[in-house]
Input
Amino acid sequence: MLLLIALFAPLVHAASYSVAVTPVDNDIWRNESAEYDVEIASFGTETGDFQVYTVDPNWNVKTNPLTIIVTPETPNTFKLYLRPSSSASYGTQGVSITFKDLNTGAIIQRSVVLSLLNPDGSASKDYAATVNIDFMLPYDVDPRAPIPLRMQLRNRNPLNISDLEIRVSSPHFNAKANISLPPLSERTKDLPSATIDPLTPPGEAEILIELVYQGAVVNQMTKNYRIKEYTQIKQLIGTREFFFKTEKTVTVNNDGNVDNKAVVTVPTSLLKNLFVGSSLPYEIAVIDGQRSIVWEIPLKPSETKAFTYTENYRILVLLALLAIMAGIAYFVLRSPVTTTKEAVAIAHGDGVSDIKVRLFVRNRSAKIIQSIQLTDKVPSLADVHKTDTPGNTAPSKVAQNERHGTLLRWDFDVLEPYEERVVTYQMKSKLKIIGKMKLPNARVKFTSKGRERAIYSNNIELIERFKDQ
Output
């Protein structure tokens, strides 16, 4: 088991790195060096110290810089050179390059293609198709916009390449094109812009570019790109008002490729909030010192949700209308005649004996009131005291009953508009009354609008007032 762990440990560490080799100049003479751009990126948490070499005796490896340190935070890009030895053969060939992490023992191998040119051979027989690629693609790709695909191709030998096929493939799009390259020429090729689904989730992907000539891949390169995330919350409010009720429909949309949350706020107050209704739950919060209603609505990419909230003041209008109707009803239905009863008791040291009563009958309307009959009752424990005070109206009728007391009645033919009549009489108690004493209310009967009505005065509760005070 320990032996297996020791054998597979470098492979595990190798999976923590990515190595991309891009040819810069791989069509050389014997006195030249093939040139490549190398990028090593780390997916782990450790720093790598890489040694670069080949076991092929026909080629010598050199890097610039000589020391290759790869940290987890930053990929390392450097130059790789292959120089042929005297034993290297002419023609197109592949060379295996080894990248070894001296810290972990991780080993990564990549094969590069190059062509060693023969100065004595003809272009058609000795020169393989050798084309350099420079592919221009931004690392961050916005899925909402077309992606430009532009590449520069360089024919590195005297071979006339008449039909070179370009293949571009990635997880999100593919493209193909054909181009002709005269000997030792350089051309720029624009492929049709690629389009991808705007809702493509963000993340990194790899694009592969291959050059195919006469059915064989003569060069290839890879390049990483990232679908960038974007999100924008769009909000639309439709308003409808009718009869003191405002209804607003709020529509929110996540125009993006990642989850987001729409936050909708509406200013309110403690009183105003009593009249607000909503089809979605909401919270009350204070934002910048303003009390507000807040809805938080989660939205998936390209998702749209709608809700309604209302401000309904109809209850206030209804209450106002009821108050107005009640006021009108009061003035229409209230009695045009009012009556008030007053009484003053005079105490003589040991109890109440004399009581003076005044009755007020008033016509508070602008119409004449007819057939007014005022009646009042004197309790059985008191007698009416007759007085000859000038201006005092004597009762039209006096009826006595030993059990129920004395009934006094005054009759008036009419009461002019806003006229008031005052009736005064005195009574003397048969016994001395100590403390409080209650007198019954008076009644007024009258004719208004052809029908007979009756109203009553207030009750009287006497508190003795001593004469010697």
Summary: Residues 1-12 have pLDDT under 50 and may be disordered.
